[in-house]
Each structure stands twice: as C-alpha cells, then as structure tokens.
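ENTRY TYPE: protein
CONTENTS: sequence, structure tokens:
***
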Amino acid sequence: MKIVTNPNKILNQPTRKVAKFDDNLHRTVREMEEILRNQRNPEGVGLSANQVGLDLRLAVVRLNPDEQDSAAHFLTIINPEITSRSTGQEGEYEGCLSIPNQYGPVVRSKAVTVRFQNLKGETLTIKATDFLARIFQHEIDHLDGELITARSAGPFLTETELEEKFREKKSG
C-alpha cells in the first residue's frame, strides 16, 4: 500500500460505502495506520482510503498529532458524514499527503459533528472542534472526491515559502 499522489483519477471521485466489516477491513485499517506512523512527513494526521488507491469510504485520523509516532492513537471513521457545522469559520494553511510539499489556505468550519461507523459496524457520533474538526473535514472531502486544490482560498506555497511567510509575520 502506497500513498497515491495528484493527479490520479481515484482522488477526484467519490468513494463507495463500506458494506463488509470483516478481517480484510481490519487489515486495511492497520496498514493505513502504519503508513501514517512510518511516513516521512510527520505532519500527516489523517489518511483516506482513496489516498492509498482504495475505493472505500474510510479514513484513519490521528487523535494526538503532537505525540511521537510510537504513541499515536487513531480513530477509524467508516462511511462518515458531517451532520452539522458551526457557523464560525477559520482559514488555515493545509497540506495533503497526496499533494506533497504544497500548502494552501483553506477556510473550514471551526466545529463539526460527524456520524460514522466503527470497525464493528456500530454507528457513532463525534463532535470535533478546531484542528480535529479541520482534519475530519479534510478527510471527508477526500472521500467525496474533493482535494484542497478545489477549496483553496489563495495560492499554494511550498513548505519553505510557508515557513518564510510565518517568520515574516512573527518578526513584522
């Protein structure tokens, strides 16, 4: 399993619902978690199935993005949907494992409620705010076939350009 990069058709198509909650699904999730643990980009905080070439409505989200990889805790969201969004929004630069070294400003809701299924097929709901809400929105966009390139409110920057921009803001 490898991360698919843009351009690739699978990244721009809505994924199909997961119907079987079996050992294959569990194996897929473990492999996706390992990709996030072992990837070269330590900023990877979520991974959708279509980012690894699978047409499944499934994503893995790192719940503690500031922890070391060995201590990473993940939440698997299967067939997720956003059931409510806050009216408050915030713009932040976002990156994407499928669009390496490119960061674009994306405006997102500050809080969302997401209904999803877990690995047992049970339906759960989670309310997320701030950075976790942004991660959920980003991954669900992936599952809907939408990349940050479609949502960006401005030009994309490389990591170096982004770091320089924030250095200028701090010193200016």
In short: The chain has one domain: 9-88+110-152. The mean pLDDT is 91. Helices lie at 23-38, 130-143, 148-151, 159-171.
